[in-house]
C-alpha cells in the first residue's frame, strides 16, 4: 500500500464519482471544475497510465461516436486495490486533520 | 476543426508522435470531443486556441513519460547484459579485450598524431607568420633551404606594404659561456632582432619587451638557463661572458653580456628551441654581411597582412632580387645574370609557419626539431586499419554471441516483443561491451604513456588536457562501434520465426554467410600484413643496434671538441685525462 500523490488521489476520486461514466473528457472536466484549474491531457493521462499499470484502475473500450471522429472511448473503473488506496489516502487525511470542525490556525483538541 | 491549417496539422502530428501508441486513440478522441463542445459553446477561434494550448502543454509531458518508460526498459537490458557477461566470462573477456586492444592502439597513435600536429600552435599570430626559404639552383646544387641573407628582412619591410614585420634569427654555433666559476658549452644561443617578442608568443617573465634586446651586449635567458647559471639568485642585471672578445673585419665583438630579461622555456611542441637570446646587433659578422645576398646564415620570419597574396609577393620579390643581388654576386666574383641565363635560380619563397614543423623534410630547420607529415599519414592509416580489424572482429563475435541467445529471442517474440524492442536489447548489450572495452582501452593508454614517452622522447599526454574534444571523440568512436556491432545481430536474429528457434531448427535463412567470410578474410589479410611489417621494422632496428661497426661501442664516451673550443688546451686535456686512468 503506498500513499497516493495529490493528483492521483483527485483522479481516482473523480473516477469513483463518475461511476461508470468515467472516460477522459468527463474526468478532466470534473477535475477542472472542482480545482478551478486547467488540467492538461498529459496531466491526467500520465498518472492514469501509471495507475493502470499498478492495478489501481482498469479500462474498457467503448463504442466509437461521430463527435470523436470515429474514435472509441476508454472507460476507467476503480479496482478493489484502487478503492483500498483511496480509502487509505482518506484515512491519512482524516488523521492529519484530527477531526477538526473549524479550520483555523489553532488546533482545538 | 480547420483540418487543413498548417499549424493544426503540425500540432496534430506532434501529438500523434508523442502520445504512446496504446493511448493514442483514446486521447485523440477525447480531444476531438472536447474541441467540439468548446466550439459549440465558445466559437471556433476559442476552440482552436484551446486545442493548441492543450497540445503545447501536453506534448512535453508525454515525451517525458515515454523517456521514463524507455529508461526503465534500458535499465533492465543493462542488468541482463551484465548477467550475460558473468555467465560466459571467457567469451566476454575475449570480445571486450579484443576491442580494447584495437581501441587502445588507435588511441596511442592518435595521441602521437595530436602531439605532432600541435607544434607551434600557441603563437598568437601563427596564422600570419611565414618563414622565408631560399629556392636555389646554382653550381650544380638545387633545392630549398631555410637560410636567408641579412639584408632580406629590411628590404621586405621597406618595399612591401603587405609585410607587417620581419624578424631575423642568427643561430650561434657552439660557444663557451662563463659565469663566475661556472662554464659550459652552449649551442642554442641565438642572435635575434628586437621584434622577436612581438612576433612570437614566448612570454617574458622578467624584462620589458621593447628594451630587452635593443642594444649590443644584451642577453635574455630562459628560466632553465637562469637556474643553471645563477641557481636561486636573481639573474637580472648580472653579467654573463659569451665566447671570446674578438674582431671581425674591423668590427668588434664584446663578449660581456648583461642579462636584461628572463623568458619562459620554449614548450616542447615548438619548432623553435633556444636557451639564450642575444641582441642581433651584438654580432659584427651580421652587420658586416649586410651587403651580401649570398651569406645565408640567418633565418627570416615575416608577418603578413591578412589579405596579402603570397604568390604575388613571391613574384614581385624576384624583381627586388634582380636589382639588389647582382652587386653582391659581383663582389664575390660571380655573375648573377650569368647564373640566371644558364638556368640557375635564386628566389625567396614563403612557407606558412604552421607548416614548418611537419612540412620541411627537404628544407630543414636550423632552429629546432622537425617532424614529418608522411609519418603521420602512415600512422593514421595504420590506426584506421587497426580499428577496422578490431571492430570487424567485435561484430563477428557479437553475432556469434547473440546466436547463443536465440532461445531468448524466440521466447521474447512469443511474448510479443517488437523488432525494435529486440534491437534495443542487443544494441544495449553491444554498447555495454564496447563501453567496457573503452574503459579498458583508456586504462591501457594510461599504462602505455610512460614507455611511449621514453620511446619517442616526447611528452605525449600533455596535450590531452588541453583538448576539450578528446573525450567526446573517444566516446563517440566506441559508441559507433557498439551500435554497428549491435545492429547486425539484432537484425539477423529478428528474422527468425519463434517456432523454428524453439525447435532448434534455425533453417529459414538459406543465405550463405558470404559477407561474413569476406570480412574474416579481410581481417586476416590486414592483421598478417601489419604483423609482417612490424617484424621487418623490428628486425631492421635490431640490425642497426647490433651490427658490427668496427669497434666495441660498449662503455665508450665521446667528448666533443666542436669548433676547437679547447683551443690550444686540447693536448693538455687529453694528457690530464690519460693520467687519471684507473684501468
Provide the fold topology.
The complex is a heterodimer of chains A (about 110) and B (about 575).
Chain A: H1 6-18, H2 24-35, H3 41-53, E1 57-64, E2 72-78, H4 80-97
Helix pairs in contact in A: 1-2
Chain B: H1 6-18, H2 21-42, H3 44-87, H4 89-117, E1 129-138, E2 141-145, H5 151-159, E3 163-172, E4 175-179, E5 182-186, E6 189-192, H6 196-199, E7 204-206, E8 218-222, H7 223-230, E9 239-242, E10 246-248, E11 251-253, E12 256-263, E13 276-279, H8 284-288, E14 299-304, H9 310-331, H10 336-341, E15 345-352, H11 353-359, H12 373-404, H13 406-414, H14 419-456, H15 470-493, H16 498-502, H17 514-546, H18 570-579
Parallel strand pairs in B: 6-13, 8-12
Antiparallel strand pairs in B: 1-2, 1-14, 1-15, 3-6, 3-14, 4-5, 4-9, 7-12, 8-13, 9-12, 10-11
Helix pairs in contact in B: 1-3, 2-3, 3-4, 3-14, 4-12, 4-14, 12-15, 12-17, 14-15
Give a verbal description of the structure:
The complex is a heterodimer of chains A (109) and B (583). The radius of gyration of chain A is 16 Å and the shape is elongated. Chain A is α+β, with helices and mostly antiparallel strands and 109 residues long. Chain A contains four helices and two strands; from the N terminus they run αααββα. Chain A has a two-stranded antiparallel sheet. The mean pLDDT of chain A is 86. Chain B has helices at 6-18, 21-42, 44-87, 89-117, 151-159, 196-199, 223-230, 284-288, 310-331, 336-341, 353-359, 373-404, 406-414, 419-456, 470-493, 498-502, 514-546, 570-579, and strands spanning 129-138, 141-145, 163-172, 175-179, 182-186, 189-192, 204-206, 218-222, 239-242, 246-248, 251-253, 256-263, 276-279, 299-304, 345-352. The model of chain B has no long low-confidence stretch (mean pLDDT 84). In chain B, a hairpin with a 2-residue loop joins strand 4 (175-179) and strand 5. In chain B, the strands form two sheets. In chain B, strands 1, 2, 3, 4, 5, 6, 7, 8, 9, 12, 13, 14 and 15 form a 13-stranded mixed sheet that branches. A two-stranded antiparallel ribbon of chain B has the order 10-11. The radius of gyration of chain B is 36 Å and the shape is elongated.
